[in-house]
Amino acid sequence: MNSIGANPYRSYVLVSREQIARNYRSVRAAVGAGVEVAGVVKADAYGHGALEVARVLCGEGARWLAVSSVDEGAQLRAGGIHGARILVMGGFLAYEGDAVVEFDLTPAVHSLAQIRDVDRLAAASGKGIHYHLKIDSGMGRLGTRASGGEILAALADTPHARMEGLMTHFASAADYTSPQTAAQLAYFDEICEALHAAGIRVPHLHTSSTNAIGYGRTEGWHTLVRAGHALYGYVSPARGDAPPRLLDVKPALTWKAKLMAVKELPEGALVGYGGSFRTPRAMRIGILGAGYADGIFHRLSNRGKVIADGKLTAILGTVSMDLTTIDLSHTTALAAGDEVTLLGTEGECTLDAQQLAKVAGTISYNILSSISARVRRVYV
Ligand SMILES: *Cc1c(COP(=O)(O)O)cnc(C)c1O
Q1: Catalytic status, residue 42
Q2: Which of 72, 86, 209 to mutate for ligand 1's pocket (most ligand atoms within 8 Å of CB)?
Q3: How far is the CA of 130 from the centre of ligand 1 (A)?
Q4: pLDDT, position 257
Q5: Residue 253: band (very low, low, confident or very high) from pLDDT cuts 50, 70, 90
Q6: 3-class SS at 306?
Q7: Residue 6 has pLDDT above 90, yes or no
Q8: What is the pLDDT of residue 127?
Q9: pLDDT at 334
Q10: 17-232: in CATH 3.20.20.10
């Protein structure tokens, strides 16, 4: 397990391209041939590396990618991703309009006023800009709350911009105790029907991300789904009486850190800032070359675990910016330069982002997207 020096970085993640490809295929198989799968690669592909993941997905035939910002979309184009459409889910601000055109991005538009902005941009550039109109169907975040009639009036007014999609986002798709998803769908369907009745054909309707795919809310799949978390191996735990999961996905990322030192402490010694841990007996400790600046949550101080020599072992004291101290009393096998596992499988033990999240008081998305840029990405 501890292949010393194989990857000469204090802390790094190994990302399995093949596992990401398998997860994408699992989503593809679940939704079937009639539904497009947009691979969500925002936030550097949830820490996995947006460009590499985009290449894998394009290699699997993905026709759509989705990012949060214009900047993220532009970076994919600059990195050579040209074979897929790129949906910018967070939309754009006025100063980003030229980049939308230049990098051939497809913005989500969140207001009727912004349809007019796209229309002006399309007229000025001489290019037909496609956009997806986002409906706030009850999440109360981005999206227009305009009625079907108001949307129709805006469309009649904007001949240069091309509405290619109508979309919304669910707030509670994994919660089977809540009526919110059904209410959001009913609201969305009413808008779709108003447009349909007026003869407007929208090529893509989309509402579902991982949880609505994973728990088979087929009524929300329409013509396209937006899958992020599932590509990285996760579906959120459900609340209430959920149907069985459809997706067979597994984490694609292993996170390692090297020991900077291993040493013995006597009983009664204090460890780390604030002296928040005192050794109850003589202990062997290891000091890892990774801390909260790498993405090890400070909240894991005196609570979290890592895998060392194939066994779960405790984080001792407070997590520092660049260093984290762990208990190595169970093994004499590790020395400075050897590695431990922060996320992933070693021997019989596994730590995944959902387990870490529970201890850190957050969600797996937050754990993955917090693995910082200092942590080198290695692709296998
Ligand atoms: C992030 C995001 C997604 C992907 O969600 P997952 O739960 O990771 O699949 C889909 N749609 C929107 C609007 C998003 O912001």
Answers
A1: yes
A2: 209
A3: 20
A4: 98
A5: very high
A6: strand
A7: no
A8: 87
A9: 98
A10: yes
Rg of the chain in Å (alpha carbons): 24
CATH architecture of 253-379: Beta Barrel (2.40)
Residue list, ligand 1 pocket, CB within 6 Å: 40, 42, 89, 169, 209-210, 226-230
Closest protein CA for atom 1 of ligand 1 = 228
Structural domain boundaries in the chain: 17-232, 253-379
pLDDT at 169 over 70: yes
351 Cα–ligand 1 center, Å: 24
Q: 358 catalytic, yes or no?
A: no
Atom of ligand 1 nearest to the CA of 232: 8
Per-residue pLDDT at 4: 46
3-state secondary structure at position 162: strand
233, pLDDT greater than 70: yes
Q: Catalytic pick from 176, 256, 263, 273?
A: 273
Residue 3 in this model has a pLDDT that exceeds 80: no
DSSP-assigned letters across all residues of 198-248: TT---SEEEEE-HHHHHTT-GGGTTTEEEESGGGGT--PPPBSSPPPP---
For tokens 């496609």, name the residue.
Answer: 130
